Amino acid sequence: MNPNPDEVADVKYVNREQLKELVRKADAGEEGLKLSPWFRIVVDNFLFKWWDHVEKGSLHEAADMKTIHNL
């Protein structure tokens, strides 16, 4: 991973529970944690559903290549 330092301050691999805690902390303004608006939209609308399918081995069921999402 080689993120643009002008766009990304930090990266971290997390599991599902750790991500939920990071989101909670960002919402509460704890530890100065901030999430980008686009990442938050992905988390709220897609990520946990995708994660469920990854764990079940059924990610192909979550793939939707025809819908354009207006977020």
How are the elements arranged and paired?
Blueprint: H1 16-28, H2 37-56, H3 59-62
Question: Describe it for me?
Answer:
There is one protein chain. This protein has 71 residues and is mainly α. It starts with 15 loop residues before the first helix and ends in a 9-residue tail after the last helix. It is built from three helices and no strands.
| SSE series | HHH
Provide the low-confidence segments as ranges: none
Distance between the termini: 26 Å
* Biggest pleated sheet: none
Averaging pLDDT over every residue, what do you get? 89
Question: Structural class, judged by helices and strands?
Answer: mainly alpha
What is the strand content?
A: under 5%
Overall spatial form? globular
- Please work out how many helical segments DSSP would assign: 3
Rg over CA atoms = 14 Å
Helix content: 40-55%
* Number of extended strands: 0
In short:
The chain has helices at 16-28, 37-56, 59-62. By secondary structure, it is mainly alpha-helical.
Task: Output the keywords.
71 residues, 52% helix, mainly alpha
